[in-house]
Write a structure and sequence with these properties.
about 400 residues, binds ligand C2E, alpha/beta, eight-stranded mixed beta barrel, five-stranded parallel sheet, binds calcium ion, TIM Barrel, single chain, Rossmann fold
């Protein structure tokens, strides 16, 4: 359970009672409910490191919501926050201000009056998405399971936004596989991909996901035609000479443009030597797709890889990014990757950006794009669409950075 301790604040005692009962049903052990914002602040001040989640109304007679948030910020509350609000436009208004109070980890909003299904929408998703409880040794996938999961649309792409470091605008998303298995929760993507690769089903899975990504992107692109959607390709697939044309044909079948799509390929040892892979990647580039080298820094990546392969983008692995502020080795790896790829005219994506300090660091390095929980986790179709609408004007980068310095 990712929420052990929950605090609920609402001036309406009925709403508090409903939510208390709800979290009890989720087996949360420590639940505190109050109708009094000052009491809530005292409680937070005493227990701030233990509270996992605060669910709060922002419109209370005794304290203005933004004042409450400022207090949370200054008390350095690091847990999650969900907002209860009366009308949707209120939330959007709050959300844009909240974006600036970046230290707060907002996971969603619950419209009033509170119902079980609206609570499930925010919290069940959160609980499931934050842990992939089933590892290979605990769960055995069968070929039938896997086929049925695709037939029943249990497997889907989720979209994690990528943000332009300079402008704060959302430039598109990476599609990441999610398998929500009824009664079992989310299966770890690594387990799933591993299964598909070992059992000769990775192409089938990739095209299944790519079709869904194309379908979703029609709606995303209708809202913002400039966005680009990235799909992960297993290195083994990059040895199939017909792959580029197959991908292009799918895109055309949906009436879409190749410039709206890109591909990420993990580097590995084989990649260094394989001329077939080189041909496939070159062909993708000729068809005007961006091709990124994924997880840079973790494998055998070296100058050689960068020189021989026609990548247009480099993704620095989150292991280096997340430690860059505190660890000299990671920091130097990031710096080296930056100068290497910039020399070659490649753009860089830093993945795993979880906090504003790390974001400030990569910005200072001249890295173009950022991806990570600071902005958002991977979202399903509806949530991604809502997200790009909420942040249509982009994140206010200057303000975010200024808040850290202050
Ligand atoms: P990846 O391509 O490096 O994807 C990034 C992983 O980092 C994702 O994990 C994402 O949820 C996670 N992540 C994003 N932001 C943050 C952050 O701020 N902090 C932390 N701690 N993690 C963050 P996920 O979804 O579990 O995927 C794991 C790996 O599985 C992916 O790594 C990729 O190699 C593979 N994978 C996922 N989907 C697909 C797919 O459709 N096809 C293929 N071939 N591989 C996939
Ligand atoms: Ca990737
Ligand atoms: Ca990666």
């Amino acid at each position: 359970m990712i929420f052990n301790s929950v605090l609920i604040i609402d001036d309406d005692p009925t709403q508090v009672a409903i939510m208390q009962a709800y979290f009890e049903s989720l087996k949360v052990t420590d639940i505190k409910g109050t109708i009094n914002p000052s009491e809530a602040l005292n409680y937070i001040n005493n227990k701030k490191n233990e509270i996992d989640l605060i669910v709060s109304d922002l419109q209370m007679p005794e304290m203005d919501g933004l004042e409450f948030l400022r207090h949370l910020n200054s008390m350095k509350y690091t847990g999650k926050l969900a907002i209860i609000s009366g009308v949707k436009s209120d939330f959007l208004d709050h959300a844009s201000r909240l974006a600036k109070m970046h230290r707060l980890n907002i996971i969603g909003h619950v419209p009033k009056p509170v119902t079980k299904s609206s609570l499930d929408n925010v919290f069940l998703k959160e609980i499931k998405d934050n842990r992939f409880p089933l590892k290979t040794d605990q769960y055995f996938i069968t070929q039938n399971d896997f086929s049925r999961a695709m037939e029943h649309n249990e497997i889907e792409p989720y979209f994690q936004p990528k943000v332009d470091v300079k402008t704060g605008r959302i430039i598109g998303a990476e599609a990441l596989v999610r398998w929500n298995k009824p009664g079992m929760g989310f299966i770890s993507p690594e387990v799933l991909i591993n299964f598909a690769e070992k059992n000769g089903r990775i192409e089938e899975l990739t095209f299944y996901l790519f079709n869904k990504t194309l379908k979703s992107s029609q709606e995303f692109l209708a809202f913002d035609p400039k966005q680009v959607f990235a799909t992960n390709l297993s290195p083994n697939m990059a040895r199939n000479l017909s792959l580029p044309d197959q991908l292009l044909n799918r895109i055309k079948a949906y009436g879409l443009n190749p410039t709206s799509f890109s591909f990420e390929v993990t580097e590995n040892n084989v990649l260094n030597l394989d001329t077939t892979t080189l041909e496939v990647l070159s062909r993708l580039r000729i068809l005007e797709f961006d091709v990124a080298i994924d997880d840079f820094g973790t494998g055998s990546s070296n100058i050689q890889t960068l020189r021989d392969f026609p990548y247009s983008e480099l993704k620095i692995d989150q292991a280096f990014v997340s430690n860059a502020v505190t660890d000299v080795f990671s920091r130097e790896t990031v710096r080296a990757a930056v100068s290497l790829s910039h020399d070659r005219g490649m753009k860089i994506v830093a993945e795993g950006i979880e906090d504003i300090e790390t974001f400030a660091f990569i910005r200072d390095q001249g890295i173009e794009f950022a991806q990570g929980y600071l902005f958002s986790k991977a979202l399903n179709h509806d949530d991604y669409l809502a997200f790009i609408k909420t942040y249509a004007a982009g994140f206010d980068i200057e303000d975010m950075i200024a808040n850290v310095a202050a």
